[in-house]
Amino acid sequence: MSVLFWLTVALTVVAVAVFIDRLLRLRKIAIDPQDFLQGIFTVLDKGQTDEALAICDETPGPLAALVAEAVTHRDSDEEHLREILATTAHAELSRLERRTMLLSLFAQLLPLIGLIGTFVGGYAALSAIDASAPLVQPGVAVHAAAGALATTIAGLVGAAFCYAGHYVLVMKTDALSLHMDTCVALTLDYLARNPGLGGEEEADDDGAE
């Protein structure tokens, strides 16, 4: 087998590893925004903002990060708070999509590598026929052509997997993005209805002094 064949195999293996890693990551951070926010709001209703932030820190994923930012900057005006949450959401999504883009890159590279392998194998086959002329050895030409076809097939199979894997990850990321929008809307609504958030906790601290 040619170097190009093994290159396509190596890139496909990397693509599989990236897909599995991203899929497991997305499953790990996939939480129900309604249930999570209900728990956070219950804690905040008691004035325990530090406890709410601790829960957010212990919960992986962008939903918890957004809620933590909202609670931390709860005294900011709504416009400024929206800007903070939008920046946080963009950063979290960019972090999730960073490795996913490798699948898109490999999906475009693998067919090209396979095509180059076909041309290289075809050239090798013609060179073998020319070198053995006038007594052509069919086995030499067939071996070179088989290597070319193997590289092409490997490239197409790898590209198909990358396209499918990228589609799956994009769909899951889009679903997470919708959950983030829901989370932001519900959190902003809660903060708007509770302008004195944290007052009870601060009052307890003052009483202790």
From TrEMBL:
It is found in: Cell membrane; Membrane. Pfam families: MotA_ExbB. Its main location: membrane. It comes from the Bacteria. One of its GO terms (cellular component) is plasma membrane. The chain crosses the membrane at residues 6-24, 102-126, 146-170. The keyword Protein biosynthesis does not apply. Coiled coil: none annotated. It is a multi-pass membrane protein. Residues 63-181 form the MotA/TolQ/ExbB proton channel domain. Keywords: Cell membrane, Membrane, Protein transport, Transmembrane, Transmembrane helix, Transport. GO terms for biological process: protein import. Belongs to the exbB/tolQ family. This is MotA/TolQ/ExbB proton channel family protein.
